[in-house]
């Protein structure tokens, strides 16, 4: 019996390695499904692969093979030979849904992102950003030079923020503030969620001109034009004054510690008495506990995100102590760190002047 248990454990270990090695193939399968509009074409009711192939402009047999691979990944269900329907998870790849993740998948399977990962070992050896070496410029400058890719990036960030935008307004006491500035807030998805839930709050959306490209449409669609100002600028130079709450989601992890200190220092410079800086980011534990990871919805994704920051932009995910250190250097003091359980793995990091 002991030998059987050891053999089963060994097979499980091998299965884990094989699944991980096939990870990039699974990602490209998602990319193909999005590009071919598979989920949109299949729909909820069983549909023949031959019909899906015709509508997608594809060959029948290869389409069947793709649909079966998507079934194996849990995104489709095969009811009978050659007949498929979409699972709830697969439905998130339908661009027509408000909670769609198609742009997110498109961005994180984009060759510009993936190519730098091929040089992860170089980044680990040197600490240098692989993206810069591969493309001859930094990631955000590359986006500025490629408007279509920049638009895809903005859309992917909007989709990534939607869950947080639904949870954050009810997880933090916005009612005690008068004006919130969302620093690096992109198209305004997160700020729109906050302002909609708190009618007495005014908003300022601050980002680069490229980052704000879709913001007017977001605010107009939510009826928030009159309550939210859009200001283009560079948070490495300054942050607009006049707010008593400064919000940043998934901003600091894009940058080195020194750069994060610069951004936070500009927030501190305009922070009024009683003001607060609210940082929304994952918080890594001081020690990795694989048992805790297996029980979480994160499943180790935050550590992969940390490596993505390394190879593509030069930033990092941080522990509570890391956040306390960069805040302290910027003249701020972290007063609390609270998991945002409805939008794991994010946490709310509150910092005040101190």
From TrEMBL:
Can you provide one Gene Ontology molecular function annotated for this UniProt record? methyltransferase activity
Please provide the record's keywords in A-Z order.
Methyltransferase, S-adenosyl-L-methionine, Transferase
Q: Which GO terms describe its biological process?
A: methylation
Occurrences of domain O-methyltransferase C-terminal (ranges): 117-332
Q: PROSITE patterns under this entry? A: SAM_OMT_II
Question: Which InterPro entries does the entry link to?
Answer: COMT-like, COMT_C, COMT_dimerisation, SAM-dependent_MTases_sf, WH-like_DNA-bd_sf, WH_DNA-bd_sf
Q: What is this protein called?
A: Methyltransferase
Q: Which SUPFAM superfamilies match?
A: S-adenosyl-L-methionine-dependent methyltransferases, Winged helix' DNA-binding domain
> Which residues are in the O-methyltransferase dimerisation domain?
19-93
Q: Pfam families from the entry?
A: Dimerisation (PF08100), Methyltransf_2 (PF00891)
Tell whether Methyltransferase is among the UniProt keywords.
yes
């Amino acid at each position: 019996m002991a030998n059987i248990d050891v053999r089963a454990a060994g097979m499980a270990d091998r299965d884990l390695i094989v699944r991980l090695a096939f990870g990039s193939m699974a990602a490209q399968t998602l990319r193909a499904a999005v590009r071919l509009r598979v989920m949109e074409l299949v729909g909820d009711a069983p549909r023949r692969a031959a019909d899906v192939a015709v509508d997608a402009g594809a060959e029948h047999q290869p389409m069947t093979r793709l649909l079966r691979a998507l079934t194996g990944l849990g995104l489709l269900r095969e009811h009978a030979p050659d007949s498929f329907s979409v699972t709830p998870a697969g439905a998130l790849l339908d661009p027509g849904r408000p909670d769609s993740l198609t742009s997110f998948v498109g961005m994180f399977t984009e060759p510009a992102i993936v190519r730098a990962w091929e040089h992860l070992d170089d980044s680990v050896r040197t600490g240098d950003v692989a993206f810069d070496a591969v493309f001859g410029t930094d990631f955000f400058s590359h986006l500025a030079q490629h408007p279509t890719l920049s638009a895809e990036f903005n859309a992917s960030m909007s989709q990534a923020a939607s869950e947080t935008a639904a949870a954050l307004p009810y997880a933090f006491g916005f009612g005690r503030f008068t004006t919130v500035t969302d620093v690096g807030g992109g198209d305004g998805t997160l700020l729109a969620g906050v302002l909609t839930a708190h009618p007495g709050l005014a908003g300022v959306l601050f980002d680069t001109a490229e980052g704000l490209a879709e913001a007017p449409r977001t605010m107009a669609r939510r009826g928030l034009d009159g309550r939210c100002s859009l200001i283009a600028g560079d948070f490495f130079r300054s942050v607009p004054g006049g707010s008593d709450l400064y919000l940043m989601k998934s901003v600091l992890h894009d940058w080195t510690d020194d750069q994060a200190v610069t951004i936070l220092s500009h927030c501190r410079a305009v922070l009024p008495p009683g003001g607060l800086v609210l940082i929304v980011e994952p918080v890594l534990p001081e020690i990795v506990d694989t048992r805790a990871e297996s029980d979480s919805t994160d499943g180790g994704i935050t550590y992969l995100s940390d490596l993505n920051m390394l190879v593509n932009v030069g930033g990092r995910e941080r522990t509570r102590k890391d956040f306390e250190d960069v805040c302290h250097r910027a003249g701020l003091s972290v007063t609390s760190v609270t998991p945002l359980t409805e939008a794991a793995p994010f946490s709310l990091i509150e910092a005040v002047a101190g």
